[in-house]
Write a structure and sequence with these properties.
Helix content is 16%, strand content 42%. By secondary structure, the protein is an alpha+beta fold. It has 3 domains: 101 residues, Cathepsin C, exclusion domain (Lipocalin), CATH 2.40.128; 92 residues, Beta Barrel (Lipocalin); 155 residues, Glutaredoxin. The strands form 4 sheets. Strands 4-3-2-1-9-8-7-6-5 form a 9-stranded antiparallel sheet, with no helix packed on it. Strand 24 and strand 25 form a beta hairpin. The longest helix has 18 residues. It is globular and about 60 Å long. The termini are far apart. The N terminus is likely disordered.
C-alpha cells in the first residue's frame, strides 16, 4: 500500500544546467566553483582549463551523493528543489566535513563589485607563512589576466596548486579551485608590484602569503632537493600489492631494467596528474627494458580501504604498473621517510626515483609540475623522456 509519506520521499534528481557551488570556510569566507549537470548521472566540474567528468552520482530519496573520480571526497546534499542543494563535502579518512550549497542557473564564479584596477599577468616571487618557523615555504606565482578574469597557479618546490580560476575585483585578486581532493581559495590585495593575501585550504587551514613581481624568478631545481644519504647508491623495499602479495625491487620483473619508483598517494592531485602521464608513457614503452612501480602512502584508516582506493585509481586512470601499499593510517612524510631510510627525506608527494639497469639511483625528482603550469609541464616531459632514453641506451 502506498501512503502519502511514501510519495514524499521518492527520489529527487538534479536538473540539467549550470550550478554555482560554495563551500563555507573560516573567516566567513566561501570557496566557489562551477559545475554543469549533463544528465542525472553525469556532471562536469570546471576549474580554468580543467574539466573533471563525474559519473559516480547516487540518489537516495531527496538526497544526492556526488563522488569525484579517484579521490575519496564526496558531496552529500539534500535537493531542496531540482536546482537548490544543501549539504556537506566530506572526507571520511581525515574526519573533515565542510558545509556545501549550490544553486542552479549561475555560472559566475565570484561576485564582482568593481572594475579591475590592477593586472596580475606575469611571474610573482612568493613566500607563504613568511617568518613562521617550520611553515615558511617559497613559491612561484604564474598568472594570466584577461579583463577581469584571472587564471594561473602557484608552483612550489613540491608541486603546484593546479588550476586556479577567478577575478580581479578592483585591486583584490580572488582565485579558487575544487577537484574533489582539495578546495582552495586565494585572496590578495594587489599593487603594480606587490601582492599580500591569505590562502585557505578547506575549512581546516589558512596561511598568509606575500609576493612581488619578478619576471626572472625560478625555484630551486627539483632534481637537487631529495637525495641518497652518504654510503647509499641504491634503494630497497618490499611492500604488498593490492592482492597482498609482497613485491620487491629484487624481483625478476625489475632485473636489468630501468625502473622509475613513484612515491605517491591516491589522495594527492599532483600525484594524479603525474600518474596519468606515467600510465600513458608506460603503455607506449612497456615493450622496452622499462618498469614503473608506485609506493602509495595512504591516510585511509585500514589496509582494506587503502587497497580499495589504490584499485580505484588504477581502474580510473588505466595504470598497468604495480602500486604497492607502503603505509596507511597517515600520510606523514616523516613516517614515509622511515620506510625509505636511505633518502635524506621524503619532501613531497609525488617524488620520482630513477634507477638504471645496474640498480643504481641516477636521479631523484621532487614534486611534479602538472598541466596547470603550462610551459613547465612541457619542459618536464621533455626532460623526463630524454633522461629515460639515455638510461635505456646504456
Amino acid at each position: 500500500m502506498i501512503t502519502s509519506c511514501d510519495i514524499d520521499v521518492k527520489n529527487k534528481f538534479l536538473e540539467q544546467g549550470t550550478y554555482k557551488a560554495w563551500l563555507s570556510i573560516q573567516d566567513n569566507q566561501e570557496i566557489p566553483f562551477i559545475f554543469e549537470v549533463e544528465s542525472k548521472d553525469k556532471l562536469k566540474i570546471y576549474n580554468a582549463e580543467e574539466v573533471i567528468e563525474v559519473d559516480e552520482i547516487e540518489y537516495r530519496n531527496d538526497s544526492v551523493f556526488i563522488t569525484t573520480p579517484v579521490f575519496e571526497g564526496y558531496i552529500a546534499a539534500k535537493i531542496s528543489n531540482e536546482e537548490s542543494l544543501n549539504g556537506f563535502f566530506i572526507k571520511e579518512s581525515l574526519d573533515r566535513i565542510v558545509p556545501f550549497r549550490a544553486e542552479g542557473h549561475d555560472n559566475q564564479r565570484f561576485q564582482i563589485d568593481s572594475k579591475p584596477t590592477q593586472d596580475v599577468s606575469g611571474i610573482w616571487e612568493t613566500v607563504f607563512s613568511q617568518g613562521i618557523e617550520g611553515d615558511e615555504y617559497i613559491a612561484k606565482g604564474i598568472f594570466k589576466q584577461e579583463g577581469q578574469k584571472v587564471t594561473g597557479t602557484f608552483r612550489t618546490t613540491t608541486g603546484d596548486y593546479r588550476y586556479l580560476e577567478g577575478v580581479m575585483d578592483g585591486n583584490t585578486m580572488k582565485l579558487s579551485t575544487f577537484d574533489g581532493a582539495h578546495a582552495f581559495l586565494f585572496m590578495a590585495q594587489v599593487t603594480d608590484s606587490t601582492m599580500e593575501g591569505t590562502f585557505y585550504s578547506g575549512n581546516h587551514w589558512k596561511e598568509p602569503f606575500v609576493a612581488k613581481r619578478n619576471a626572472t624568478y625560478e625555484l630551486p631545481s627539483a632534481n637537487e632537493l631529495t637525495f641518497l644519504k652518504e654510503g647509499y647508491d641504491t634503494i630497497d623495499f618490499t611492500f604488498p600489492n593490492t592482492a597482498n602479495e609482497p613485491i620487491s625491487l629484487k624481483d625478476e620483473r625489475f632485473k636489468d631494467k630501468v625502473v622509475i619508483v613513484q612515491i605517491m598517494g591516491t589522495w594527492c592531485p599532483n600525484c594524479l596528474d603525474e600518474s596519468k602521464y606515467y600510465a600513458d608513457f608506460y603503455k607506449k614503452n612497456k615493450d622496452k627494458d622499462l618498469e614503473f612501480i608506485a609506493l602509495a602512502f595512504e591516510y585511509a584508516k585500514d589496509q582494506t580501504t587503502a587497497f580499495s582506493r589504490i584499485e580505484r585509481l588504477q581502474s580510473k586512470v588505466g595504470i598497468e604498473y604495480p602500486i604497492l601499499l607502503a603505509q596507511y593510517g597517515t600520510s606523514s612524510k616523516t613516517k614515509a621517510q622511515e620506510k625509505l631510510p636511505m633518502l635524506n627525506h621524503v619532501l613531497s608527494y609525488p617524488t620520482s626515483i630513477f634507477i638504471d639497469k645496474q640498480g643504481k639511483v641516477r636521479k631523484i625528482h621532487t614534486g611534479f609540475n602538472g598541466p596547470a603550469t603550462g610551459e613547465k609541464y612541457t619542459a618536464f616531459k621533455t626532460e623526463f623522456e630524454n633522461f629515460v632514453a639515455e638510461l635505456l641506451n646504456e
